[in-house]
User: Fold this.
Amino acid sequence: MKNIINLALSLVILFIVRREIMSQTNNNPKLAEKKIDISIQQKSFHEILGELATKKKIPIGVQVTEEEEPIQCKDVIDFKLQNVGINEIMSILISQCSAYTWSIENEVVNVFPINKEKSILDVSLAKIKVGNKSSEEIVDLIFNSKEVISELQSEHLKRDTTVAFPRNVQSNLKTYSFKIKDKDLRYVLNYLIRNTENKYWVYYKLDSKKDWISLRIF
Assistant:
């Protein structure tokens, strides 16, 4: 009888815990299940991705193709949707710009060339340890890692250090601390925009200088 009572109590506790977990999940759905309302007017493929990230707080990482994009990628489009998921939105965007495909990696939308292109995003970092640094400083730290330095040297690439906002406002930016081991650069960037106020990263080669690369966090 005692064993039956203990079993019954265990089942009740399990039911309560499971219900609590389901409640938390429903209140904070995974990215693939998230629904949003969105209204787009006269915006191109890349502009819409930026708006999804900065206004709708959908974490997005973009690897811009090194090839010439189809002209449709620069065309501006309009659409208005209610209670739609990421899959529906991305299907519209990819149909507009066929140079890319996408997936959700670690709760981040990753957009990348449909034909895989080698980049520093694939570089594996043995360890990155961040202590009280802003997002811009974290990017600097990444580029100072021995693995990224080695890759840039072997591929004869240089980093574009033009910043997206004046350095004199950096003192007001939030700082972050974390440690990651044995992950590639793409994973680190995804982790950063998933766990900070930043929601968008973009990697590209400069049109005017193909041996120069840029990595931005917004």
In short: The chain has six helices and ten strands. The first helix runs from residue 2 to 27. The mean pLDDT is 86. The longest strand covers residues 124-133.
